[in-house]
Design a protein that fits this description.
By secondary structure, this protein is α+β, with helices and mostly antiparallel strands. The protein has a single domain, classed as PPM-type phosphatase domain (Phosphatase 2c, domain 1). It is 32% helix and 29% strand. Helix 1 runs antiparallel to helix 2.
């Protein structure tokens, strides 16, 4: 197994009265999660917390991860979280519509897998280059894919926060799974849109290029989002592959 260091942090931001984001990093279990709640004060927090707790529970009960079972484990986390959130909202009409976006990164052997739903993101920083390895499930991304708008127009689009897929809002859920090999020096970033709405990819890359530890890089990303306005909760998790 590669040696991997982990760091996670979350901030309410400057405009919100509560934090609907949730994260967990578990070096001993080899995974990290960032979830961004939706559905209003308190209810978004419920949904994102359900996701992170479900991930921790399932990984804790898993007897090792390998190529044969990792996809099933990640799928189970998303599907069970989806069911719990959806049924919880069914029992309490005030919570109707609550859900969360979710990023889950797990390592096994010399490989990684990302589970992704919504408009939170996972990036891979490798050889000085930053690559977004997930694709937003949003109206704006759909319009970008169809060539209807430009990247510049997308940043301030009126529908930028309208997402097409989230955990817990429907009975069925389609999960994106992305897998690949790790190499020494890889740095993975999971983040809520509170970061990417305020800080562009170039600025994120510039922070990751700095000769700092991952905890300092994580805190610097949070501060960049806040100095740019801090309009939303902002959460980041960093996982650095030290040896292959």
């Amino acid at each position: 197994m590669p040696v991997i260091t982990y760091f996670g942090t979350s901030d309410r931001g400057l405009k919100r009265s509560n934090n609907e984001d949730s994260f967990v990093v578990k070096p001993d279990l080899g995974f990290a999660v960032v979830a961004d709640g939706m559905g209003g004060p308190a209810f978004g927090e419920v949904a994102s917390d359900i996701f992170t707790r479900t991930a921790a529970d399932i990984f804790s009960g898993t007897d090792g991860m390998d190529e044969g079972n990792i996809s099933e484990i990640v799928q189970n986390i998303f599907q069970l979280s989806n069911e719990i959130i959806f049924r919880t909202a069914e029992k309490n009409p005030r919570q109707h519509g609550m859900g969360c976006t979710a990023e889950l990164l797990a390592f096994y052997n010399q490989s990684y897998i990302v589970g992704h739903v919504g408009d939170s993101r996972t990036y891979l920083f490798r050889d000085g280059k930053l690559k977004q390895i997930t694709q937003d499930h949003s109206v704006v991304q759909d319009q970008l894919d169809k060539g209807m708008i430009t990247q510049v127009e997308a940043r301030n689009h009126a529908l930028k926060h309208v997402i097409l897929r989230a955990v817990g809002v429907k009975e069925s859920l389609v999960v994106d799974l992305i897998q690949g090999k790790t190499i020494a020096g890889d740095l993975f970033l999971l983040c809520s849109d509170g970061l990417t709405d305020m800080v562009d990819n170039t600025a994120i890359r510039d922070v990751l290029l700095l000769s700092l530890g991952i905890s300092e890089k994580g805190e610097k990303l949070i501060e960049l989002a806040k100095s740019a306005g801090g309009n939303d909760n902002v959460t980041v998790a960093l996982c650095e592959v030290m040896t292959a």
